[in-house]
Amino acid sequence: MEHMSVAERMARGVLVVLVVLFFLFPIFWILLMSFQTNEEILRIPPSPFFTPTLANYSALITGKLVTAAGTLDIAFMRNLWNSVLLSTASVAIALILGVPAAYAFARFKFRLGEDIAFTLLSFRFAPPLLVLLPLSLYFQALGLTDTYIGLIWVYQLIALPLILWIVRGYFEDISPDIEYAYRVAGHSWWRTFTRIAIPLAGPGIAAAGLLAFIFCWNNFVFALILASAEKQPVTVGALAFVTASGIQYGQIAAAIVLSVAPTLALALYAQRYLVEGLSLGALKG
Amino acid sequence: MTDTAVKRADAPLRRRRTNYLPYLLSLPALLVCIGILIPFITAVYYSLQRYRLNLPMMRGFIWFENYIEFLTDREFWRTVQVSLEYTVLTVGIELVFGLAIAMLLQKQTRINNIVSILLLLPLMTAPAIAALMWKLMTNPNFGVLSYFVQLLGVSNFKWASDPNTALFTVVLVDVWVYTPFIMILLLAGLRSLPTQPFEAAALDGVPRRFVFFRITLPMLTPYIITAALFRMLDSIQQFDIIYPMTQGGPGDTLLVFQVRAYLEFYQYTNVGKSAALLIILWAITFALSNVFIKQWLKLRERARGLA
Amino acid sequence: MGKLELEAVSKEFKTGKVLDRVSLGVEDGEIVAVFGPSGSGKTLLLRLVAGVEQPDEGRILLAGRDVTEDSPEARGVGMAFQNFALFPHMSAFDNVASALTARGAPRNVIRAKVEKVSALLKIAHVLGHAPRELSNGQKQRTALARALVAEPQILLLDDPLRNVDAKLRYEMRLELPSLLKASGSTVLYVTQDYKEAMAIGDRIAVLSDREFTQIARPAEIYGKPATMSVARLFGDPTINLIPVAPLASPTGTTIGVGGALLSLPPGFAHLAGKACVLGLRAETIAVEDTSSAQSFPVEVVAATPLNEKTLLLLRTDDGREILASEPGTEEAPRRHGPAFARFDPGAALLFESASGRRVAPQTA
Fold first, then answer.
1. Can you give the pTM of this predicted structure?
2. B12, C57: Cβ pair inside 8 Å?
3. C211 CB near a chain B CB, below 8 Å?
4. What is the ipTM of this complex?
């Protein structure tokens, strides 16, 4: 593979550029749109040259949109906050519940563990609506429809299997002798778990948590069915926003940018953990 | 202390102390499992009933009638057809595209690594949001893509609003979002392949096409199958892209399983039918996922062996 | 320091029973080498004493206290693992100190004890390093230091010299006994190398077939093995085993070896007519040019000089091959060809074929 003719190297280069263009263009274009006024957006032909404006963002952030027809209240910031709250809380709880369970599955071979692992794994691939639609009826009966707790609980269905899946593999990779050595040295089971097992599985836990956060943030259908209007995260909120505000394309674009910015930033910042979580985690887990 | 065989004392037989720790640790996971199984069983229960939310008094057991009705329901077969079309198109295109990109970026150079990271971004956007992004770009009035297409001489390309091009549009969005996933998987696979066969082939002057089809591809097969099954399982249940884009329309063009089930539940309030549809979908995914899990376990063993 | 006792301990896994009601008593300050072929359960035995595994039957007593139900951290033993099991994310210093941090000792005391042990094991200069930066020999000594630092009553060493290169292994084999004695701990030392067992142990406990076949001082194990399998496990080259059938005769009991009729020492009359096996260690066989009362004819087929001895491959008239060894000399190697092999009947070992047990001469 070392010897490549100049022509071939150029062809490769061109292809890489085309691929990058294809995958990054939409993000780039929407980003542009978010800094344009409505007039500029509607102008034909569309042009990347214009004077940028922050009006769209300020409208979203202040929550007020002044139009010729009057002042509209935009609740998008609320959606953003919901996303932050739901994702962070769900992942935190999933880690607290899931890491010890992953340890149990890794270290102890017990029938119940195999059954739980199998159920969670098989429902990872099951249609979400199968569980969500009946759940929506239960939620009404149990009074959970307008709560964060209900949503965070349901989000465990997304985060927990992922964490169990990935972190178990990392615990299994730690030689049990290392833990025994620490216990024989005089430390309790709990200290061994917190001082030895968890630090050594650290990268796996970070990767799992990161991935779980992104999956929770990007989730659409859970929130669509179970979240009340006040508690909707950005994925559902953006759709409602489009339907409601109709012609305010600049703000829609800004809303989209705000919706994806956190996950994209996380992805870029922690891409090493991400790739490890996605590929090796899928293979290792 | 002379040489003796050991005395066999009468041993007090210990009852082995059961270790409660694993059960304690996995309690929350167990609760989540129960949280999944209860709605699931409920759904099975509903699917066997005539149950409409707006006609609660008519609720009653009709056993498998919901399922049997589907067999003669034209709409049902349309759903099956669209779902299959969608799955085959997305998985097929993404596999080819993903493999091509992985091969393009195989070498561990600075640029290739940066590009791989950049290509992660579409995967990190919520599919529902991606649908909105593409909706904006394909807007007939101001969408940049509509403009480009006009430049190419095609007028009146209606993208998602036209029954003829709706499938193409949503497949395009799906390809945009999920190809990077296949790329990452296959790139990891490519980079983990042993180098000796390739070095030997280079020494022997084997032509590149032969190397690809007879050496690379066969060795990559487990990764390809894993990636394919993963995507198939997601594509057949597609909801996040199609619903924001067209809610299943225009007409019934994009009524895949979950979209139809959703509409049955909320628009027609037919809980029984919706549940039955989902159970059928579940059966398909269950069968597929069993195949997948077997494949994936095999792949995991292989990855462990190399690690 | 304390006595260690195992009473009728058994342990079974899905693959079968590994230990079947084994018992062992180790005196305070004694070093017992647990020796046996691989898979015989030696490591399992250590793990049971440490508390890492639980026995199905039996009791374990440390210094008179029944610890069978106790968790590992409550037992106060020190253990060195075969693969070192050092904590990768801690420095060598912290690794060694881990046995002291559990008991909440003050910083300066910890430092002093760690430095003392490290000096003894010659790793003081690498204490700041992470385990992955250490050589195998340094890792092994760090693992040992970790086991010793808290001055435990009982010390468990799981084949510590196995993963160490040959030269270092030889050096450590010389250092270890004095090191262990100086610590004063009661020691269980697991090894697969019989020479190591004989060099280090005050007594050797031979573990095979799910039980202790023999527990005795090294000289006794070598000179008076309890069974054929024990005799085979010790000695290099492996002991020669020749099936014989003792015959009663007016002059005493005789056996036929290599076509010659040789007499046994008195006391074996009860073996007449039974199927037996004669055990001859290579070094007890003298190869001579002329015959004598207790010799039988052989042919010297090959002679292999090793540094301190020469191995001779002999073949008897009935086709049996026997190994004899002579102390190495400067003289020209022994020529091949016919010769006579003679052994001291007192040094011969007799085993019962059926049970494999050694038969001691019966005094009237």
1. 0.84
2. yes
3. yes
4. 0.87
